Write the structure tokens for this entry.
Amino acid sequence: MMKRNQLILGNKTLKDITDDICQPVETLPGKGWVGMFLSAKTLLLFYIFVLGMIVANGMGLLGVNHPNAWGTMIITFVFWIGIGHAGTLISAILFLFRQKWRTSVARTAEAMTVFAVMTAGLFPLLHTGRPWLDFWLFPYPNQRGPLWVNFRSPLLWDVFAVSTYATVSMVFWYIGLVPDFATLKDRAKNKIRKTVYGALSLGWRGTARNWSHYEMLYLILAGLSTPLVLSVHTIVSFDFAVASLPGWHTTIFPPYFVAGAIFSGFAMVVTLMTLVRIGFPQFKDYITLDHMEVMNKIIMTTGLMVGYAYASEFFVAWYSGNVYERYVFMSRAGLPGTTGDYAWSYWIMVTCNVIIPQIFWSKWARRNIAVMFVVSIFVNIGMWFERFVITITSLHADFLPSSWGNYAWSFWDGALLFGSFGMFLTLFLLYLRVFPAISIAEIKPMLPVGRDDHKGGH
Amino acid sequence: MAKLMPGLAAIFTEEHQILEAARKSRDLGMTKFEAISPYPIHGMEEACGIKRSSIPYVTFIAGSIGLTSALALTWYTSAYDWPINVGGKPPFSLPAFIPIMFELTVLFAALASVGALFYHAGIPRIDPPTIDPDLTSHKFAIFVPENETGYEAKKLESFYKGLGAEYVKKVEAY
């Protein structure tokens, strides 16, 4: 039988694991963290200002206008929701497939999911233009008839899908954290820490009966999250696919969106994990190069899937014989006979998503931190442009040339996009200092993987 | 969730020791003892004789309620209370309601399952008893309550010492 590589390096004992993972939570942050936090927080303050301006002045600040009724807000919403999907894939789907390596990265990937969904959730709420009336999205008895929401609209399905996804992801994440909060409480040296983590741990004791129920619940939540995460991006793709616009009205959208979401999400996990490994060197024993390599393989695989989807869309546009569909795709690629106004964005997308990840065919590149960091950034950029291409190229030139028009990108569009990173990174950096970034209770049973010195027991 | 009981706790430092101790305790005919560990131990349920968790039944029932509620909600609002013609679809356009039904099934099932864990594990608990703070980090313990069949502090102490316990101590309440 082939010998497995060790999941945890450095011959750790159980106590070493607890000490290593609790260390960032129990010590004062270093200069690097403070520097990053201050930058992220400044960006967050700027973002709050931008959102305030948009709410106060209206959606007209952004480039959205006829015929481009959807713009940066929807593009960036789909971008962040997609990022979140990798976290659920790692924590739920890979758990069901018994992929033990997932344990080291699951906690942080789930945190990424929660923060990405929080960042994403603001966009559709603000995009309504009058966010103070957003409670109209929910079906509640009202004095207007009662006038109910339209359950036949994918936009309403999205309300239910995203709010369920946010709730279940947060609960799943929190349940995983409960035993670790108990560890932090028991290690606490001062009273405030003991009280706060004691409250967060809900009084968890870790008896065999508790663990038995806990493991069952974990399995159930993983089983529920798996179809849930697939449904969320499927429904996000319905927002587009149910409309009859050329370039949107295609059946390939749900799988194409889900593959793209996992692709972009894994890229973000790799971006964040490379940074976590630099910031907390002791985590290199837990998040090893083997872990990074596996994730890079997933990036390449899903990158090939989206590449296939791009090609397939072109083929179907040609094969369908529909002139509008053909025109949209020829225009996307900037072929002769079209305006090709957005061909640059299409080729940025193809370069970042299809061409650049091909470097991961090489084992050297898959195991090189600098290379994977750069590639993951390119994939993030490429996946934002994918949503830009889908949204804008279809909207700006649909059926009648008399109704065509380009997207009037404004300063506020860019500010909104960059500011949203401030929100995400602030939350993520705080998380690294307040919550254990690797699941202490889950990683310990992984200790014997690949080791020879089994003592009694099993 | 039983009330707190005084009793005896034996602390172990190795995973295989506590598995062994749990098996031996059960062989003695004890049923109420608890094995405490910082992480779930493979094989512990069999060793302690713990039955399969009943949470899946809760999940199924709550999921069914979620599904039915979503069906009732969409039918009542869209087909009964104020039917509106949207794109020529029939008032009760079931395929369009399936996403809502799916999401509410998952939402109800997930939240109810978490509630079931809270119920079974007796959490949240404001001030949980602690035997040894290392039990959430790298040590293991067997706790035997006083009402256990054949409870005899002296005998149990030497029994667990013989199984390699680091130390044995009396616990006021656990």
In short: Chain B is about 50% helix and 10% strand. The first helix of chain B runs from residue 15 to 27. Residues 55-121 of chain B form one domain.
